[in-house]
Input
Amino acid sequence: MAATQQSERKPANGTSRLVNFRLTPAEFEAAEHFARQSYRSKALFLRLMYLRGLQAYQQDLEEEE
Output
């Protein structure tokens, strides 16, 4: 039996993209914990962590110049 593909939900303006990535069980549990603690969904929590990391990475690149 072939695996079914997850359909991608898009917001009304269609500007977002679904991105999949892997977490270890410990990383997933930590994400669940902090998402619950901050009253956020796991998806929103992980997006915010990505954005914070991206900002830190960009600052590191600017400091290297």
Summary: The chain has two helices and no strands. The two ends are 53 Å apart (CA to CA). Residues 42-64 form the longest helix (23 residues). The mean pLDDT is 86.
